[in-house]
Amino acid sequence: MTSPAKFKKDKEIIAEYDTQVKEIRAQLTEQMKCLDQQCELRVQLLQDLQDFFRKKAEIEMDYSRNLEKLAERFLAKTCSTKDQQFKKDQNVLSPVNCWNLLLNQVKRESRDHTTLSDIYLNNIIPRFVQVSEDSGRLFKKSKEVGQQLQDDLMKVLNELYSVMKTYHMYNADSISAQSKLKEAEKQEEKQIGKSVKQEDRQTPRSPDSTANVRIEEKHVRRSSVKKIEKMKEKRQAKYTENKLKAIKARNEYLLALEATNASVFKYYIHDLSDLIDCCDLGYHASLNRALRTFLSAELNLEQSKHEGLDAIENAVENLDATSDKQRLMEMYNNVFCPPMKFEFQPHMGDMASQLCAQQPVQSELLQRCQQLQSRLSTLKIENEEVKKTMEATLQTIQDIVTVEDFDVSDCFQYSNSMESVKSTVSETFMSKPSIAKRRANQQETEQFYFTVRECYGF
Amino acid sequence: MTSPAKFKKDKEIIAEYDTQVKEIRAQLTEQMKCLDQQCELRVQLLQDLQDFFRKKAEIEMDYSRNLEKLAERFLAKTCSTKDQQFKKDQNVLSPVNCWNLLLNQVKRESRDHTTLSDIYLNNIIPRFVQVSEDSGRLFKKSKEVGQQLQDDLMKVLNELYSVMKTYHMYNADSISAQSKLKEAEKQEEKQIGKSVKQEDRQTPRSPDSTANVRIEEKHVRRSSVKKIEKMKEKRQAKYTENKLKAIKARNEYLLALEATNASVFKYYIHDLSDLIDCCDLGYHASLNRALRTFLSAELNLEQSKHEGLDAIENAVENLDATSDKQRLMEMYNNVFCPPMKFEFQPHMGDMASQLCAQQPVQSELLQRCQQLQSRLSTLKIENEEVKKTMEATLQTIQDIVTVEDFDVSDCFQYSNSMESVKSTVSETFMSKPSIAKRRANQQETEQFYFTVRECYGF
Question: Which UniProt keywords apply (chains A, B)?
Fold first, then answer.
């Protein structure tokens, strides 16, 4: 009746179920391990972030101190060596103004990097400490919850196992009862078969036909038939009972199967996701705020620095020789102001304070005047030429000294490799052959300019 | 004839002139001193600028090295402790991405500050060296030219002095000759007066009336008159000659006066200005370029840093729990993927794989179903309540962890005094009472959230 090729044996079914449950149990363990690992990584990351910002705070503080020292060194120098009025005087000159702003900028940057360091230590790191605490606490709680969920799931799986086994048992009982019933039926059949052989063949082979047999035989047969009937009835009852139990057990198994699948689905699809959500509760948002604090600090530093650079740029734009000359001359007014005109001093009450241009000096003066006029017009022509040469020479010098060679953007365009920065950068200003050539040209032109000036009475 | 109250004496005039020339000479000396001082200050300023940038280059290099070490420390850690695949896996998580970008940023800043240092050393400082050389050379030449101009001016002043003295001399000679002439005229007059007394009173008192006197007396008188006449003629001639000389001398003096005043004017108004221009030739322009190189370097650094911060900001914006959860589950797919559904395992070829819901189990199942439905509707109502509570609690936590408390602009707003930065800044994050309160609230809410979840089966 049982065909091994067709039906799985109980053992096989149990073994399969065991395997399936073992796999799930292994997964559950791995899930916990995975959460542990994520927790560990998160704790490590937050520790790294703290260490990173602690170390960076030190670096920023170091940088700030060095910048402050640098500024103080030159500010002290300016304050000590010269008296205050002199210093104040010099400040009106545009290059000195640039220099002062440079020093101010260094002071400003020093201060800003101290602030940055302070924000790292007193704001950003505490945030990471908090995130770390929160994460640890949430992971712990989530793991507890997760463990409970897993235990519940395992309970469901065990229940399914037990329900399945019950079903097997009751079904086996039912099958057994059925086979026993069938056996009884067979025996009854056999008994009836005997009666038919020993008696008339007319009699149909039914228990009711026993009325026709002989009394004695009849009695024996009747008692035997009754026995079998009784047994059959018993077995029938047993079978019916077992069959019902098996049906109920199967129903329980089927219901437990649905419930287990639903539980497994709920655990894998919802609970695990919720569990990770609980571990993450606020993590990303808090990390976001900590990093935004960092960004806010950096951007404020940048803005402050930029403001300083703007001030310097403005001062550089105002570098102006003409106004500096004006300021210098005003500053040393007594040194540069022209003296009183020399007045005619009449000798012993000499009344004539005008040039006497009458005879006999008239002709001589006229001649002299003509000579001077002729000399003057020659000089004027010469002068025009010299002026043109000088202007052209000056323009050449101006062109040389105002060439726009100050853009260093190239130096900040690195190759993707991030390597060999030095070699790229060092090729800048001085090593360019064009610079040397330009400088030679500048000095030559300058020399020429001076020569021309000197030759023609400045 | 000379009235001391009315005319200045020669000595006074000479003394006044001397004083005036001395004053000019003192001014000229001061002018040279002033140029020297400006040259010295300029050389000093350029030296200071070189020292400043040399020292700043060191500071930037130091800063760069420290940043590099910082980045390497954590990058090495990430590389060594875990295998590459694992690291790669983790990189898909948004917090790890932020962390990697932070380290990248430090590397980028390290590189940029090296570049900055390099530009200081190899571009900006050489520029200042050049400007210093140029300035020194130009000052030297300008001073030579200035000295020549001053010598020329002194020559003109000396000439004026000598011309003035000549005028004084010739005018004195002229006056003397005139007075001698006048004396002769007086004598002649006297002689004629004698003749008139000794002779007729009719005769007019003229030299021609001598014809009427006695021969002897006539002869004596005539010879005396002739003598006087001769002397007078001589004196007349002398006077005329001296007068002409005096006029010429005065003319020379007046011309020299004009020339001197013009020279002085030219020197004070044009030459001094030109001299300063020559000292400044290219100075402001070259300084401008050197400082613009500095600005270009700083602005490029700023831009590069800003790009890095933008990348970090973008990563911070992309901090997302949901997608991280998704990625984690994909990463550990074998751990998180739901197992196969549990299938009905028929026992010994049991053909019924469906719930048997006929008599005699029907009524029992129906009863059970009704019980479950009633329980389910109770749970649904409860669930709705719990869900609402949980959502509200979660929202509270979300509100706490997403509060926008990351703006640190205030820390960069210093008081004008630039002092007491520390005290202002340290009042930030942790010391605020609101933070402690908020944290307590957060943990309480979190606890409540977990309790609710646990009570109602997660």
Answer: Coiled coil, Neurogenesis
Of A6, A353, A401, the CB nearest to B285: A401
Q: How close A85 comes to chain B (CA, Å)?
A: 15
Instruction: Tell me, yes or no, whether A298 and A364 share the same domain.
Output: no
User: The CATH number of the domain where A64 resides is what?
Assistant: 1.20.1270.60
B122 and A429 Cβ atoms separated by less than 8 Å: yes
Residue with tokens 């002139």: B17
pLDDT along chain A (458 residues), means of 10: 61 90 94 92 94 97 97 82 66 91 95 95 94 91 92 94 92 90 84 68 54 68 79 88 90 92 94 92 92 95 95 96 93 92 85 79 88 92 88 85 85 61 50 71 81 70
> Is A458 within 8 Å of chain B by CB?
yes
Whether residues B305 and B364 share a domain: the answer is no
User: Do B302 and B371 lie in a common domain?
Assistant: no
pLDDT tens-digit profile, chain B (458 residues): 444 456 778 888 889 999 999 999 999 999 999 999 999 999 999 999 999 999 999 999 999 999 999 999 998 876 665 566 676 777 889 999 999 999 999 999 999 999 999 999 999 999 999 999 989 999 999 999 999 999 999 999 999 999 999 999 999 999 999 998 888 888 888 877 776 666 555 555 555 555 555 677 777 777 877 888 888 888 899 999 999 999 999 999 999 999 999 999 999 999 999 999 989 988 999 999 999 999 999 999 999 999 999 999 999 999 999 999 999 999 999 999 999 999 888 888 777 778 877 788 888 889 998 999 999 999 899 889 888 988 888 888 888 888 888 888 888 887 544 444 444 454 556 556 667 777 777 888 888 888 777 766 65
* Residue B335 neighbours by CB under 8 Å, 6+ apart: A27, A30, A31, A34
Domain boundary among A282, A310, A338: A310
Residue numbers in B near A355 (CB within 8 A): 251, 254-255
Q: State how many domains chain A has.
A: 2
A449 located within any domain:
yes
- Single pTM value for the model: 0.85
Q: Residue B458: which of A149, A247, A305 has the nearest Cβ?
A: A149
Chain A, 73-92: which have a CB under 8 Å from a chain B CB? 73-74, 77, 90
Last residue of a domain, which of A270, A295, A310? Answer: A310
Contacts of A79 in chain B (CB under 8 A): none
Nearest CA in chain B to A169: B347
Using CB atoms, pick whichever of A312, A361, A450 lies closest to residue B295: A312
Chain A contacts of B99, Cβ < 8 Å?
45, 48-49
Find out whether A95 and B284 touch, Cβ atoms under 8 Å. Answer: yes
8 Å CB contact between A430 and B122: yes
Distances (CA, A) of B41 to A93, A265, B34, B135: 11, 85, 10, 11
With respect to residue A316, please indicate whether it lies within any of the assigned structural domains. no
A184 and A284 together in one domain:
yes
B274 interface with A at CB cutoff 8 Å: yes
Query: Token digits for A177?
Result: 């009862």
Q: Which of B123, B292, B320 sits opposite A284 (nearest CB)?
A: B320
Query: Do B36 and B146 share a domain, yes or no?
Result: yes
Calpha distance B82→B75 (Å, rounded): 11
**Residues A298 and A178 occupy one common structural domain:** yes
Structure tokens at A19: 């395997």
Q: B259 lies in which domain range?
A: 10-81+89-196+222-310
Angle at A381 between CA A375 and CA A384, to 5 degrees: 135
User: Which residues of chain A have a CB within 8 Å of the CB of B360?
Assistant: 244
Chain A residue numbers with beta carbons less than 8 Å from the beta carbon of B397 are: 281-282
Residue A96 C-alpha from the chain's centroid? 44
CA distance A375 to A371: 6
Put simply, the chain B residues between 394 and 413 with a CB less than 8 A from any chain A CB are 397-398, 400-409, 411-412
B398 vs A contacts (CB less than 8 Å): 282, 285
Mutate to test the interface with A, among B124, B335, B341 (most CBs of A within 10 A): B335
* Residue A156 forms part of a structural domain: yes
Q: CB–CB of B27 and A335 under 8 A?
A: yes
Do B304 and B368 fall into the same domain?
no
Please enumerate in sequence order all residues whose Cβ is within 8 A of that of B326, keeping only pairs 6 or more positions apart, or say none.
none
Domain assignment of residue A364, yes or no: yes
Residue B111 to residue A421, Cβ atoms within 8 A: yes
